[in-house]
Each structure stands twice: as structure tokens, then as C-alpha cells.
Write a structure and sequence with these properties.
208 residues; mainly beta; 5-stranded mixed beta sheet; binds the ligand Nc1nc2c(c(=O)[nH]1)N[C@H]1C(S)=C(S)[C@@H](COP(=O)(O)O)O[C@H]1N2; binds molybdenum atom
């Protein structure tokens, strides 16, 4: 009797319950983004937390590197249908900076702002989770520039487009504001377990 073996090159088997609907596992790590990979310059790089907070924060690169980091394991689910399981991330916990910034009672949403103007929005309750990191390392290596280095968001329970690469600022908001892909019709929340790929059409606010 022989046990069927996966053919070489066939996709990895995913453990029961690990794949959201419509997702297929991959061992590779595709690179996906709009526009150019921004150039990192430690002398001019900064990271800001502002908006509906009691304490606005700003870090230069050396200050950022002095922040405490932690490790988290998590899966990547891309809205285009691939999932990459068992990633090991290291970075500054999102909650560490939220604790320092102290969101005002009216803060309900966040807009993640990347170098070059790219943005992604999500509810504050999805952002304020123990699993979420401002990641600088993946599987023990510094994040390569094409994957968002030096710092990217990692929000593992939402589709990966919410995990902004080249993150430079977090703006806390009282009212939700669509980011780059969300303006293009993608979902305002993006829960892979609910297949929240596309959202309702946005009202035309006349701003184009
Ligand atoms: N700044 C920025 N972050 C981004 C994007 C982007 O275009 N710009 N694309 C998002 C999308 S759609 C995906 S699927 C993931 C891809 O991350 P990866 O290239 O590391 O796999 O990054 C997300 N973060
Ligand atoms: Mo994506």
C-alpha cells in the first residue's frame, strides 16, 4: 500500500481550517504593490502617529530602532487568492504605540500612510490587536525593500492589502476614509474569513 505523495512543485497542503474561502496556499512570497519601491534614507525617514490622539508621536530611524520589539507568527491571505502560512514576523507591537499615543474617545478608524502617498484604512478595533505589528523582520531576516522594508504594517487577520508596506504614519480618525484600493472598490474592512473582497459602491463625494 502506498500513501499518495505530493508531486514536486505542487502546492503545500494547508492544515484543516487554516485557509479562508477561495484561497490557495503558496510557498513563494509574491511581491505586489502599486508604483515604485521607495528609496530608504535613514537620515530623513520618520514615523508619525497623529490625528485623534492625546499625544502625537514622531520617531526618527535611530529612535525607532530603540523601541521594544516582539515576535508573532501569522498567515498571509492576499485578496488575489494566495495564502502564505506560518510567517514569523518581528517588529514593534501596534499596541505599544497606541498605548503611548492614547487614542481620543472619538477615535474609531485608522488610515495607514505609506511613503509615496499610498494609504489603507481599517477600523481601530481591527488595528488595536495584540497580533498586529509594525514589522521590520520576516522569518529572521530584515524585511527586503520590495516587501516593505524598513517598516511595514502586519495585520494578519485581514487581507494583506491592509498591511501597508513602507509605512511612515498612522492617522487616527473619527470617521472612516477610504484608502488607495478602497477608493477603487475594495472592502473597507477586508476580513478574509467573510470574503470581504469588494465593498459597496462608495458614495460620490464630488472630489473625484
Ligand atoms: N505601500 C504599499 N503597501 C502595500 C501595497 C502597495 O501598493 N503599497 N500593496 C498591498 C497589497 S495589495 C498586498 S497584496 C501586499 C503585498 O505584500 P508583499 O509584496 O510583501 O507580498 O502589500 C500591501 N501593501
Ligand atoms: Mo493585494
Amino acid at each position: 500500500m502506498s500513501v499518495p505523495r505530493p508531486r514536486p512543485g505542487s502546492p503545500p497542503a494547508a492544515p484543516e481550517g487554516r485557509l479562508p474561502p477561495g484561497q490557495a496556499p503558496t510557498r513563494k512570497w509574491p511581491v505586489l504593490h502599486y508604483g515604485e519601491v521607495p528609496r530608504f534614507d535613514a537620515a530623513t525617514w520618520d514615523f508619525q502617529v497623529y490625528g485623534e490622539v492625546e499625544e502625537e508621536l514622531r520617531f526618527g530611524w535611530e529612535e525607532w530602532r530603540a523601541l521594544p520589539t516582539e515576535e508573532r507568527a501569522g498567515d498571509i491571505h492576499c485578496v488575489t487568492g494566495w495564502s502564505r502560512l506560518d510567517n514569523r514576523w518581528r517588529g514593534v507591537p501596534v499596541r505599544e504605540l497606541l498605548r503611548r499615543a492614547r487614542p481620543r474617545p472619538g477615535a474609531r478608524f485608522v488610515l495607514l500612510r505609506a511613503a509615496g502617498g499610498w494609504t489603507a484604512n481599517l477600523p481601530l478595533e481591527d488595528f488595536d490587536r495584540d497580533d498586529n505589528l509594525f514589522a521590520t523582520h520576516h522569518d529572521g531576516e530584515p524585511l527586503p525593500p520590495e516587501h516593505g522594508g524598513p517598516v511595514r504594517a502586519v495585520i494578519p487577520h485581514l487581507y494583506f492589502w491592509k498591511s501597508a508596506k513602507w509605512l511612515r504614519a498612522v492617522e487616527l480618525l473619527a470617521a472612516d476614509r477610504p484608502g488607495f484600493w478602497e477608493r477603487g472598490g475594495y472592502h473597507m474592512r477586508g476580513d478574509p474569513w467573510k470574503s470581504e473582497r469588494f465593498g459597496d459602491p462608495l458614495p460620490d463625494d464630488g472630489s473625484g
